[in-house]
Specification:
There is one protein chain. It is globular and about 50 Å long. The chain is 73% helix and 0% strand. It has one domain. It has twelve helices and no strands. It has 315 residues and is mostly helical.
């Protein structure tokens, strides 16, 4: 059990939950405003339900945890059987180290998939009920797509993580799907402005993956894992990293300017203060293995952003 907990890489959960938190905050706020506007001329009192009392929020959290753990199991399995993790930097992986056999990991992936699907179906039912079969079917399809994407990142001969498409996967599923999907579960409406903070979460999540790939560049190149970093080289990978961080800030700022209601909405800027120091470190760094410690900084800064950005919308 201890080895499976290590393989689950619980330290990656705050990053995966960031999109859910932002989508839930914005969805609950916009749902409240819609209800308030509907009854503003009546004597009905409208009270916003706190996130921690929302079944949609907690089911979305559990579903995302399932997807993330499945992705980590699949990544450990895929890289392990291909030999990519044999000489990697950072913490040891369970399959490559022999702590978990490939067969045991495949079993763990199967169990995690079943659990995640059950929770996802419950989430869809709670959100849409019996009357929105089309939307329920759409979100079930998105859940299946998330499972397939989590597994195919490193598993199989056509694993897209070995062809440089991992960044797109992270941007779409950690950013767009997490934020916009969660928002839609609350409001049942699609507000295109919501894509701006979704871009922010997606870009910051991609920055974490880029750091990971910068750290593992030499080993990935030897193993035939052609990440974007391997393709563009170490120097351009730094420029790419700067763009991801700066662009994420601009999209969040643009959303606040468009939807300005209170100066509290600028609270999210606090989360970018440690990222400034981080960018200076990346700029001056000459030893790629030292980037391992920066992964946690960017991931936790993204999580902090989701909290502060959400609070800024309700204060």
């Amino acid at each position: 059990m201890k080895n499976f907990i290590k393989a689950a890489r619980l330290r990656t959960l705050p990053l995966s939950l960031s999109g859910i938190i932002v989508g839930a905050y914005l969805g609950s706020v916009d749902k409240f405003l819609l209800i308030y506007e509907e009854f503003i001329d009546t004597t009905i009192c409208v009270v916003r339900t706190p996130l921690y009392r929302s079944s949609i929020f907690w089911l979305a959290i559990l579903t995302t945890i399932g997807f993330q753990v499945l992705s980590n199991f699949a990544n450990d399995y895929g890289d392990g059987v291909k030999g990519t993790d044999d000489n990697r930097e950072g913490e040891a992986r369970m399959v490559s180290s022999g702590a978990i056999t490939p067969k045991q990991m495949k079993t763990a992936m199967t169990v995690t998939t079943i659990f995640t699907l059950i929770v996802a179906i419950l989430l869809i039912y709670v959100s849409f009920g019996k009357d929105n079969f089309g939307l329920s079917l759409l979100f079930f399809g998105l859940g299946i797509a998330s499972i397939v994407a989590a597994i195919k990142y490193t598993v199989g001969k056509s694993a897209y993580g070995y062809s440089g498409f991992g960044d797109i996967f992270v941007f779409v599923f950690f950013g767009l799907l997490a934020v916009v999907g969660t928002y839609f579960l609350y409001t049942k409406e699609l507000n295109f402005v919501i894509f701006l903070p979704a871009f922010t979460i997606g870009l910051l999540s991609t920055a974490v993956l880029n750091l990971n790939n910068m750290r593992d560049r030499v080993n990935d190149q030897k193993s035939g894992k052609n990440t974007i970093v391997v393709k563009i080289g170490a120097e351009f990978a730094k420029y790419y990293h700067y763009y991801l961080i700066f662009a994420s800030f601009l999209f969040a700022l643009l959303y606040v300017v468009i939807n300005y209601r209170s100066p509290y909405q600028f609270l999210f800027i606090i989360a970018y203060l440690p990222l400034i120091k981080h960018l200076v470190f990346v700029y001056n760094n000459k030893e790629e293995r030292l980037l391992d410690g920066e992964l946690k900084k960017v991931a936790l800064s993204t999580f902090l952003f989701s909290i502060l950005f959400g609070l800024g919308q309700i204060l």
